[in-house]
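In this supplementary section we document a worked example of the pipeline. Step one takes a protein sequence of length 231 as its only input; no multiple sequence alignment statistics are reported here. Step two produces a three-dimensional model, which step three serialises into structure tokens for compact storage. The input and output of this example are shown verbatim.
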Amino acid sequence: MKQHSKRFRAVAKNIQPKNYSITDAVELVKQSASAKFAEAVDIAVRLGLDPKKADQALRGTVALPHGIGKEVRVLVIAKPPKDEEAKAAGADYVGYKEYLEKIQQGWADVDVIIATPDVMGDLGKLGKILGPRGLMPNPKSGTVTPDVAKAVKEVKAGKIEFRVEKAGIVHATVGKAGFEKEKLVENIHSFLNTIMRLKPATAKGQYVKSIAISTTMGPGVHIDRAETGTN
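The serialised model returned by step three reads:
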């Protein structure tokens, strides 16, 4: 059995085994942030989906109104003149063959990779490297696009990508514990609204089974499913 720290057990005492409103859950999570670094606030949504079925392999993006409180490092794989557009939009790394070689050698020190459609033939060959790290660009997430400038600006402004994992759970970061309560609440609402909007037509039974938020080092706080408009 996992042994929790004294600090963890102390903050966990304030959390009851029940479902809270988003506002109350955020308040508790903020109170539980006692680590010596700026903790993130993460959300986990367990869905009634079977990710093995192609039509239930949920994935998407959401532009969080207040971002996640982290400087996102963006690599754009593009040829001229799109590379200059990416640089002007604020991409951290921009290039083509030199970055394909670096990735082939194991480099992947970025958070998001954006690519133009014409380079995907070459970039797709690196799927075994980028796929497991969640870095492979995908048209559905807006990271394969001819409009690289727009994509870079959106990612830098707080657009995040998510997808359902094998266990049917979607994990994402929705901000920092140091955010104002109202900003975290708005970010969580935006995330959950997107999850509901993307509900697969083939999903049967209860779609949202549970929702929980937590800080990086803190205990989970469960949110009432009614907050998504379901019961």
